[in-house]
């Protein structure tokens, strides 16, 4: 089916043509007709599948036909969990709506409120907002929500994770009772379903891909490694495999800076995005990364949500994510728009418990390996190993059963970049002379690998991770 057949008109088709979006993605094909028919929608949409277009395109179409908002009013309100996502959705409204007269703006915290207020003075067709800043603006009477006709909750699961439920309820109560409601979430939980049902009647439920699954084109690999060798292993892989770019996730803000410093010391250029950075610094880091001026972006979960970077080949979990849903969102930053990508997770012996949650949620087994030059030697702490840790190729005897080690709170630990104890055997300083290759040619590659890739039975076969029958288990953040 074409975009035209979905009911989109000339000005929007023109921008799609300019963007070279030849045909609708699966979620767009499903969602656009439902939204154009004015129905309430709850969509399970994977990140990177064209989710934004699936609501922005029909909203633009519908608002073209309607009267313009005036006097601080808004006709379509999109709520997002993060500033980056708000900015990105707004950019999509601008790009897709380039040949329409639709007006839009984005408001979020961390940026000056005065310019946001002045943009809202005349009213806008589409307002994209994070909940906290929107409430500030409402309280300061800078915006009115009583003419909202369409309400979108984007990445609703994140909004609940981040503790926005009360803000969302407050905002909803300020909008008219009769409105169209659209809820998008990569993962579904009973809480999300409850929220969706509270929005309005006759909710149409769609799913472009089964919820709680990862994009199938992403190759996923777990590397067993000692905690204090993670920095060296990462630097080694980046240089040895000549990664063009990678997004590295850290559990903590402090960890972000440590990883960044470690890579810098290895001669690898980085940027960081986390909650301690000003909005200006976050925007700059993201822009530089998107433009290819920065090779490695190190980020925390909150700051990196919703980031859309095309052609991102690698995502690295420097720390295993504590919450299984974060794993889905993190690795969904690669493999976007039908492209292939690799998600590498560095797992120390104390982190096996997190893998159990992830594999349980995804109902797959993720390939595991270790790097020849960074074989783990740490033993599980007293109390034993993890009952689910696997070793498909008979490696890593250190990973015994029943690991209940609980070091999850400790941040990242590093050996010094130049420290001999952390070096791959025979390796020079990562990023140093010798063509910038630590470990020299082929040194430190996973044994039996092809081009530095693990040789697990589905490695190199995107989406080839094995299904399991284990029950999905989701833990929700209480933040
Ligand atoms: P999203 O899931 O909305 O974040 O979109 C992910 C990426 O896919 C963005 O870079 C979009 O520009 C791109 N995209 C969205 N829809 C299409 C389409 N129909 N054809 C090709 N690319 C698309």
UniProtKB/TrEMBL annotation:
<keyword id="KW-0547">Nucleotide-binding</keyword>
<keyword id="KW-0347">Helicase</keyword>
<dbReference type="Pfam" id="PF00271">
    <property type="entry name" value="Helicase_C"/>
</dbReference>
<dbReference type="GO" id="GO:0005524">
    <property type="term" value="F:ATP binding"/>
</dbReference>
<feature type="region of interest" description="Disordered">
    <location>
        <begin position="371"/>
        <end position="479"/>
    </location>
</feature>
<feature type="compositionally biased region" description="Low complexity">
    <location>
        <begin position="446"/>
        <end position="460"/>
    </location>
</feature>
<feature type="compositionally biased region" description="Basic residues">
    <location>
        <begin position="468"/>
        <end position="479"/>
    </location>
</feature>
<dbReference type="GO" id="GO:0016787">
    <property type="term" value="F:hydrolase activity"/>
</dbReference>
<dbReference type="InterPro" id="IPR001650">
    <property type="entry name" value="Helicase_C-like"/>
</dbReference>
<keyword id="KW-0067">ATP-binding</keyword>
<keyword id="KW-0378">Hydrolase</keyword>
<feature type="compositionally biased region" description="Gly residues">
    <location>
        <begin position="428"/>
        <end position="445"/>
    </location>
</feature>
<dbReference type="InterPro" id="IPR014001">
    <property type="entry name" value="Helicase_ATP-bd"/>
</dbReference>
<feature type="compositionally biased region" description="Low complexity">
    <location>
        <begin position="399"/>
        <end position="427"/>
    </location>
</feature>
<dbReference type="Pfam" id="PF00270">
    <property type="entry name" value="DEAD"/>
</dbReference>
<dbReference type="InterPro" id="IPR027417">
    <property type="entry name" value="P-loop_NTPase"/>
</dbReference>
<dbReference type="GO" id="GO:0003676">
    <property type="term" value="F:nucleic acid binding"/>
</dbReference>
<dbReference type="InterPro" id="IPR011545">
    <property type="entry name" value="DEAD/DEAH_box_helicase_dom"/>
</dbReference>
<dbReference type="GO" id="GO:0003724">
    <property type="term" value="F:RNA helicase activity"/>
</dbReference>
<dbReference type="InterPro" id="IPR044742">
    <property type="entry name" value="DEAD/DEAH_RhlB"/>
</dbReference>
<dbReference type="GO" id="GO:0005829">
    <property type="term" value="C:cytosol"/>
</dbReference>
<feature type="domain" description="DEAD-box RNA helicase Q">
    <location>
        <begin position="1"/>
        <end position="29"/>
    </location>
</feature>
<feature type="short sequence motif" description="Q motif">
    <location>
        <begin position="1"/>
        <end position="29"/>
    </location>
</feature>
<dbReference type="InterPro" id="IPR050079">
    <property type="entry name" value="DEAD_box_RNA_helicase"/>
</dbReference>
<comment type="similarity">
    <text>Belongs to the DEAD box helicase family.</text>
</comment>
<feature type="domain" description="Helicase ATP-binding">
    <location>
        <begin position="32"/>
        <end position="206"/>
    </location>
</feature>
<feature type="domain" description="Helicase C-terminal">
    <location>
        <begin position="217"/>
        <end position="382"/>
    </location>
</feature>
<protein>
    <submittedName>
        <fullName>ATP-dependent RNA helicase RhlE</fullName>
    </submittedName>
</protein>
<dbReference type="InterPro" id="IPR014014">
    <property type="entry name" value="RNA_helicase_DEAD_Q_motif"/>
</dbReference>
